[in-house]
Amino acid sequence: MFSVIKAVQGKRWRNWSHTSESTPEKTFYPSSIEEVVFIVQEALRQKKKIRVVGAGHSFTKLVETNDWLISLDSLSGIEQIDEANGMVTVLGGTRLYQLGEGLGLAGYAQENLGDINVQSIAGAISTGTHGTGVGFGSIPSQVVELTIVTGTGEILTVSEKQNGDYFKACLVSLGSLGIIVKVKLRIIKSPVYEYRSEKVEYGIFLERLKNYIIENRHFEFYLFPYSDVVQVKRMNSTSRKPQRLFFHHFKNLLLENYLFFALSEFSRLFPRSSSTISRLSAKGVGKTTIVATSHKLFATPRLVKFREIEYCIPLANLKVAIQEVRECIEVKKYNVHFPIECRTVKADDIWLSPSYQRESAYIAFHMYKGMPYDEYFRDMEAIMQKYEGRPHWGKMHNLGKRDLFKIYPKLTGFLAIRQELDPQEIFLNDYIKDILVGKEVDKYLQENR
Ligand SMILES: Cc1cc2nc3c(=O)[nH]c(=O)nc-3n(C[C@H](O)[C@H](O)[C@H](O)COP(=O)(O)OP(=O)(O)OC[C@H]3O[C@@H](n4cnc5c(N)ncnc54)[C@H](O)[C@@H]3O)c2cc1C
User: Fold this and answer.
1) Atom number of ligand 1 nearest to Cα 16
2) Is the pTM of this model over 0.85?
3) Adjacent-strand bridge partners of 343
């Protein structure tokens, strides 16, 4: 059986942002759960390590391996839509756009999404991928049931009622507890939304911020460095008819991708122009209103490559944190033209979720590929840490084990379950060892038992 599983030898892998790459000895493309089990059993026998890749859209070295890589691209698709209970069952490799299209055809949708839809459902769950809207949790909080293949090759199904602790640990687990092969998600009847984008003067924006958060189903904003203009984006349900989006998507492609790419290249070549480019981009924000079904509105194409950090802070700290961010950029005169993206998320109870037990705001900092980012990111991280920030697991950060233990109260429990589900440590790579496990952690666990 093992020999018939589709596999390629020595195929180089690289992530979307080109910040991580490796050449796995073998990359497997299983097309059934049984094949995933066989690969794990064979890895145990041959003493190989395994990492799983989704769409490779994480910025960190989560996926890197020189041993075996598994892609679930051939284990994808919707298995069943349970209309009576408002749930969908999908295979782990399903991309979010596939899920959105399939659900859309049946008149359903995910309740919330991020700003792209190319990720795999398992990858999005594993790093705590989120959208915006204080009434909605992150994508893993939509999950009702998970089926994983553990590090001993067993098939384990977990839910709130069945192995509840394992469920809370497995949802955001960075591919380190098992291979997510099947997911059951809560869904909603496909809503039609009115999307509005406009620019607002910073002082007025601050006065309205609280109301924007409370009054809108999905609300986010972009702060433009060196500018007093804020872009406000809102999405709310409407009874209006969906419109054709061809022109909107064409405009997006042209302005937010091709024009922005040209401006970004200019900024890279002439870094001191960044502040002017940021102000120009802010001025260029027009007033837009569009009506469409949800899966056509949430995501937009992202063709301009960048580096990114994103932190999740308590929502109550949002206002003071953004004030400090703006001041720091101006005082330190950072050459940055990418706007700062701010979103909100409901609290959840997923052990390694950045929004664990707190209503949160996410603040994301980007830097164009090829421009220096380290100092800028470190300063922004210091502000985020001051306001109790937890980093997004799929984005860059400089936190170590001890920092993570301080901000994740359930990390000890998570690691205990990790040892149970993967006793031979086949799902660990150097990066996971660096940030989560190792001797230092064993010592910490002993001291804090
Ligand atoms: C342009 C861009 C826009 C983005 N927008 C957002 C956004 O709006 N909101 C947000 O929160 N994040 C966003 N992200 C981050 C992104 O959603 C996450 O990094 C997500 O994990 C990527 O999914 P993926 O399928 O590419 O997973 P990968 O990056 O391939 O993998 C991520 C992790 O999941 C694990 N994994 C993958 N498949 C499985 C599996 N079947 N079983 C177990 N583990 C698995 C991997 O081992 C790895 O640890 C964005 C990233 C980019 C590049």
Assistant:
1) 53
2) yes
3) 220, 362
**Residue 119 Cα to ligand 1 middle (Å):** 6
Within-domain flag for 108: yes
Mutate to test the pocket of ligand 1, among 15, 32, 57, 300 (most ligand atoms within 8 A of CB): 57
Same domain, 84 and 141: yes
Q: Does 360 lie in the same domain as 232?
A: yes
Quick: pLDDT tens for 8-29. 999 999 999 999 999 999 999 9
pLDDT value of position 445: 61
Residues 320 and 216 in one domain: yes
Q: Do 223 and 144 have their domain in common?
A: no
Shared domain check, 137 and 13: no
Regarding the beta carbon of 72 and ligand 1, being less than 6 Å apart is answered yes
Cβ–ligand 1 contact at 302 (below 6 Å) = yes
Q: Which of 157, 189, 221 represents a domain boundary (last residue)?
A: 189
- Whose structure tokens read 């691209």? 73
Does ligand 1 lie within 6 Å of residue 109's CB atom?
Answer: no
Give the pLDDT confidence of 254-277 residue by residue, as tens digits.
777 788 899 999 999 999 999 999
Q: What is the pLDDT, as a whole number, of residue 230? A: 98
CATH assignment at residue 54 = 3.30.43.10
Q: Domains in the chain: how many in total?
A: 4
Of 297, 299, 298, 294, nearest to 108 by C-alpha is 294
| Signed CA dihedral, 156, 160, 163, 165: sign only | positive
CA of 132 to the centre of ligand 1 (A): 17
Q: 392 with 341: CB under 8 angstroms? A: no
2 occurs within a structural domain: no
Ligand 1 centroid to Cα of residue 211, in Å, is: 31
The answer to whether residue 396 sits within a structural domain is no
Number of C-alpha atoms within 13 angstroms, CB side, residue 180?
35
Per-residue pLDDT at 1: 73
User: Is 149:178 a contact under the CB 8 Å cutoff?
Assistant: yes
Q: Which residues of the chain have pLDDT under 50?
A: none
Q: Identify the domain containing residue 342 by its residue range.
A: 192-391
Q: Which atom of ligand 1 is nearest to the CA of 130?
A: 11
Verify whether ligand 1 is closer than 6 Å to residue 179 (CB atom).
yes
